[in-house]
């Protein structure tokens, strides 16, 4: 059975059309860049002589700009050609990134960080509908799981490159200067390649937003009705908010918890993170199999519910082996639900409002994560780790209950579909 599943999975992936393959290559380039940037950008800013408060301001201004732009980005995505928007926003995001690495004036760095966040938000919002448009209905889970797994693998490789390249830059390039800066500047080439892959996407209805006639009528007209979400979008937004609250409570502080409470050293934390990453990859691969048996929404519900006890286990144990094992299983389950949820959302949301829906869900999730991270930080600063874990567990359970309540009757159980057809006949 396992061999047949793997063959079927690989066969489905190999059958992705040209546009999907190009988008996956773009995801790989973005993952490599994200891994490099995520590892050494903080070191670069501190090396320049700035303090942690300015680093936090740079990061927060980019996130705030991205969150603020999510809903307008969704409206643009629904009203104009998504392929063109993806290309233009990706190029502008790349151009906005370079000054942050080249210039030292804090005001200029903040300005271009905000611009990069805004343009990056547009490309991020456009990506999911374009992926959905370019795959068959029964292949969406495979596409989104492949996109998630390839992005994660690329980011891990990017982290490794980020650790190696600064030293190599200084040793072998007679340019002088900071190895961190040279590495960040060189990594922009990855953004350039991602823009190239987006540019190579084939034109046509599969990559477009609304139909040409509808687009021509409304291109220059805007109404507040365009910002009126459907009941389905509101339901998904609510589940995004509850999930964001859960994630923001403890996910940003796992390393702190391991080190301060369980007294794990850096090596133990690194090994635990590596094991969790390996199981995450397995989860992405298993997701299509699970959805074929119990459906997308039930897969998302079940994995979120099962992950909750492992969050509780981390909250109350003082044994780092138990905590590490619970963390690995938790990461496996909670990330396994991602592709199934995204695929189900794209199937249920109408084509003409997918961009707006993603923008609204993204904004709700970002605001929830920001608020819960702030509250959790206050609690943790007082030594209270238990409450954030409990609230995380409650958030996951609430998300699962809402998903099941709203959508349990929308998607028939796959195992019962043949029986339903016989009855219909």
Please, could you describe this protein's structure?
The protein has 16 helices and no strands. It has 425 residues and is mostly helical. Helix 3 runs antiparallel to helix 14 (354-381) and helix 6 (140-172) packs antiparallel against helix 11. The chain is globular, with a radius of gyration of 22 Å.
Write out key terms for the chains shown:
Growth Hormone, Chain: A; globular; mainly alpha; single chain; 425 residues
Low-confidence stretches: 205-220, 418-425
Count structural domains: 2
Helix fraction bin: over 70%
- Please outline the major beta sheet: none
CATH topology of the largest domain: Growth Hormone, Chain: A
Q: Helical stretch count?
A: 16
What is the assigned CATH homologous superfamily of the largest domain? MFS general substrate transporter like domains
| Level-2 CATH architecture of the largest domain | Up-down Bundle
What is the strand content? under 5%
How large, in whole angstroms, is the Cα Rg? Answer: 22 Å
> What is the CATH top level name of the largest domain?
Mainly Alpha
Query: What sequence of helices (H) and strands (E) makes up the elements?
Result: HHHHHHHHHHHHHHHH
Number of strands: 0
What average pLDDT do the residues reach? 80
Structural shape: globular
Structural class call reads: mainly alpha
Concise synopsis of the structure shown:
The chain folds into 2 domains: 15-218, Growth Hormone, Chain: A; 225-411, MFS general substrate transporter like domains (Growth Hormone, Chain: A, Up-down Bundle). It has 425 residues and is mainly alpha-helical.
């Amino acid at each position: 059975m396992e061999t047949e599943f793997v063959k079927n999975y690989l066969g489905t992936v190999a059958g992705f059309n040209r546009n999907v393959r190009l988008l996956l290559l773009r995801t790989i380039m973005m993952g490599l860049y994200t891994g490099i940037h995520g590892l050494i950008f903080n070191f670069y800013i501190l090396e320049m002589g700035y303090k942690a408060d300015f680093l936090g301001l740079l990061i927060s201004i980019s996130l705030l700009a991205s969150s603020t732009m999510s809903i307008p980005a969704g409206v643009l995505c629904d009203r104009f050609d998504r392929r063109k928007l993806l290309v233009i926003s990706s190029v502008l995001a790349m151009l906005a990134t370079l000054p942050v690495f080249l210039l030292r004036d804090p005001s200029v760095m903040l300005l271009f960080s905000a611009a990069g966040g805004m343009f990056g938000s547009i490309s991020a919002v456009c990506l999911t509908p374009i992926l959905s448009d370019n795959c068959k209905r029964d292949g969406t889970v495979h596409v989104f799981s492949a996109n998630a797994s390839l992005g994660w693998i690329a980011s891990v490789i990017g982290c490794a490159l980020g650790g190696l390249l600064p030293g190599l830059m200084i040793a072998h390039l007679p340019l002088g200067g900071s190895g961190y800066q040279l590495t960040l500047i060189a990594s922009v080439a990855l953004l350039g390649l991602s823009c190239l892959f987006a540019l190579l996407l084939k034109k046509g209805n599969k990559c477009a937003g609304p139909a040409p006639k509808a687009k021509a009528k409304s291109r220059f007209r805007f109404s507040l009705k365009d910002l009126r979400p459907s009941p389905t979008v509101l339901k998904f937004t609510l589940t995004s908010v509850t999930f964001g609250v859960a994630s923001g409570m403890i996910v940003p502080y796992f390393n702190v918890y391991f080190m301060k409470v369980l007294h794990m050293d850096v090596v133990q934390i690194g090994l635990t993170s590596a094991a969790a990453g390996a199981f995450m990859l397995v989860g992405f691969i298993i997701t299509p199999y699970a959805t074929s048996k119990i459906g997308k929404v039930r897969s998302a519900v079940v994995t979120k519910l099962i992950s909750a006890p492992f969050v509780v286990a981390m909250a109350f144990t003082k044994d780092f082996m138990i905590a590490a094992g619970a963390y690995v299983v938790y990461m496996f389950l909670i990330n396994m639900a991602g592709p199934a949820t995204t695929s189900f959302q794209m199937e249920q949301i109408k084509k003409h409002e997918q961009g707006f829906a993603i923008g609204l869900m993204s904004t709700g999730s970002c605001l929830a994560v920001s608020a819960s991270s702030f509250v959790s930080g206050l609690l943790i600063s007082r030594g209270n780790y238990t409450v954030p874990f409990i609230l995380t567990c409650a958030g996951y359970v609430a998300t699962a209950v809402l998903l099941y309540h709203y959508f349990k009757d929308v998607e028939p159980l796959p195992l019962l579909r043949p029986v339903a057809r016989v009855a219909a006949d």
